[in-house]
Amino acid sequence: MSRFAAVPGGAGLDERLLALRLDPEDVYVAVQDYLDEDLSHARRDVTSESIFDPGHKSTVAVTARADGLLAGLPVAHAVFHAMPGEIEFAYLAKEGARIRAGQVLARVSGPTRSLLAAERTALNLLCRMCGVATHTRRFADVLADWHTTVLDTRKTTPGLRAFEKYAVRAGGGDNKRMGLYDVAMIKDNHKEAAGSITEAFNAVRSAEPEIDIQVEVETIDEALEAVAAGALFLLCDNMSPKELGEVVEAVGDRAELEATGRITIDMAVDYAATGVDYLSVGALTHSSPILDIGLDFEE
Hints:
The protein has 299 residues and is of the alpha/beta class. 43% of the residues lie in helices and 18% in strands. The two termini are 37 Å apart.
């Protein structure tokens, strides 16, 4: 069990997290686990404890070292908040804003031991979230003149799904589903086990009358069968833009359509030009590079 409980951050931090559609209690519990990973349950930074007295205080600047998009500053705040001592966290940049190398994003003041103990965990989360948001923004910018929205997938880092999916939203994308529990997705294995798309759809609808159902399709015939069964959202898997355009025309406005299958940013406009509603890109969360952000002592 952790030495420090997951204490609420107060109205200011709680409200900031809620504004990001992150549950404050979940964030605080997760932060405790992340800190335990770096500091152990005893919460020890043997280097800083050897050099700095408990009463030594400092101010540090959280500074961007590359251009990108800011996402996750309240999460970094939650990490510093979890440390012992009185810590002040001043926001100097707006969440979701484009940031530049050298820009100070926040200043944090408090016991030096606590600041250094929280540094790596806070930066790991912030760099990761900013990296995902920056990658997503590139897709969103390319798609700006089209009605197509970029979506994420469930290909997320274990333990970081809520944070990575928030970062996608911050970057101008959207979340398809959070997990296996909130939306049904009928895929090849389900179709084969049930005998057909129609049988699989009917089985899910019977068991879960209120749940949204998405159906993965690979041909026009499958798309038309899914729509006839009652599907309102189709996942068009591994189709070329030409094939996808034919499905878009055949289905019309009877269902929303999503294209997927290793779609890169260079392909995005070709797919958007078909009239498809969404592009899902697993790389947003499984392959985004971090955005370099550092922590520097101030005089």
